[in-house]
Fold this sequence. Notes:
CATH superfamily of the largest domain: Transposase IS200-like
Strand order of the largest sheet: 1-3-2
Number of domains: 2
Strand content: 5-15%
CATH architecture of the largest domain: 2-Layer Sandwich
Largest sheet: 3 strands, antiparallel
CATH class of the largest domain: Alpha Beta
Helix content: 40-55%
Number of strands: 5
Order of helices and strands: EHEEHEHHHHHEHHHHHHH
Amino acid sequence: MTSRGNEKKVIFRNSKDKEKFLSYLESAHDRYGAVIHVYCLMENHYHLLLETPRGNLSQILHHINGAYTTYFNIKRGRSGHLFQGRFKGILVERDAYGQELSRYIHLNPVRSGVVKDPSEYRWSSYRFYIGKQKEPRWLTTEWVLGYFGGRKHSGYRRYREFVEKNMTMKLESPLQEAIASTFLGSEGFIKKISRGYLENREIDKRNVPAVKLILTKGPSLGEIEEAVSKILGKDHVFYRKLCIHLSHRYSGMGLEEIGRHFGMKGSAISQSSRRFKWAIDDHNGVGRTIDKIKEELHVEC
């Protein structure tokens, strides 16, 4: 999950701020059972890869963000929100994406140009994953390092090689593959969540935003096409690409299901959606058109 500073403002002004934040990760582990695998603290946001065995994600994040906001405001004599809205949490298929996500998070300081080597950055968990420092008791490295030979010299070396081989290339975020900006996993994973938990209501949907999305359902593919046609027109050059992008982001359907509808492979759906987003990020006119279509579909950002 990711949480950013309000209006992208700085949330960590010095080392003491970062140390204080890490103390709240420790207390989240002790009090609420948070299993923290990976972290990275940047100037105006942070990334966490964590598990919530008790199904209490909202409680954990309320503790971390709330306690840190109180500390930050008292120290600076300010008031009000520090973080930007609700945290962005994505439900991830554990074994399929854990390695990739850990690498992506650990390379964040390199992508941002803060350091050239992730091992130079003090405020991520990377140094613990390569044996450069002994990990704190509240950080769990066993799961990810288990794919590389465990917590021993060979495991540390293999993990470092895994991370470093992508340092010189543009590493795409695994989160771009997320379905409806909420799920990261296979078709079977999503069905398992839906059938195994939702039908029996075993999860408190307030603590797993992805569950709420399944329960409330997104717009159908037909409804998306109808809305795009109404606002943009079927003959527009962006019509098909926009339908695919909105279907991927808001329908809540799996990649294979969306792919069948558009006559494409599931993997091509996420690629098309991502490329379209890149193409329109700096195009205000298209952005306003998309906002109108989202209003027509009654979907949020």
